[in-house]
Design a protein that fits this description.
2 strands, about 5% strand, binds heme C
Length: about 170
Amino acid sequence: MIIKIKSNSDRRNTSRRWVGSLALAAIALSWSAGTMPAAEKEVDVAKLPPAADKKVDFAKDIHPVLKKACLDCHDASGGAGNFKVDTQENIIKGGEHGPAVFPGKSAKSPLVHYVAHLVKDLEMPPKGSGDPLTKEQIALLRAWIDQLPKPEKAPEPKTPDPKEEKK
Ligand code: HEC
């Protein structure tokens, strides 16, 4: 299944007449990559490992993995993207670009997409900065998210609108 978040790929055009617009598209792409990471990507959730079939304990199964892989850049002082992995609450809350986790919806949670390397330029941990999480670890992360109680007014995954991005 493909979740089409928003894509610029239809702007791609190999014809020479379109070199000018290609350059513009490239500028638009690099601009958007810097300002709104998740917004322009297609995420193929079929590539995700399935959620682990076990009851997950955040403190025991999840937090140690995230602290080891992420805390260097995402500590309590408000690290990269103002995303903090110091507490379960902050992990769910997410960073500058909104929630990283949608309780009950692991396949739609940006955090899962990032650790599974489904979003280009937002692989977490970034390439060259530590080992990627294993399939088993991603499966556990998914199980944790799927088992989280849904808050009464859960934020819904939505297609971000560039104009609304400034919060
Ligand atoms: C070597 C440093 C580094 C490590 C390690 C790292 N990250 Fe990141 N992370 C970044 C940077 C830099 C950004 C900002 C990227 C951007 O906005 O283009 C980021 C952004 C994010 C965001 C988006 C925050 C937002 O709302 O803007 C999430 C979620 C995230 N990282 C999760 C993780 C997770 C989960 C791990 C561990 C598995 C991890 N990161 C490990 C550097 C790192």
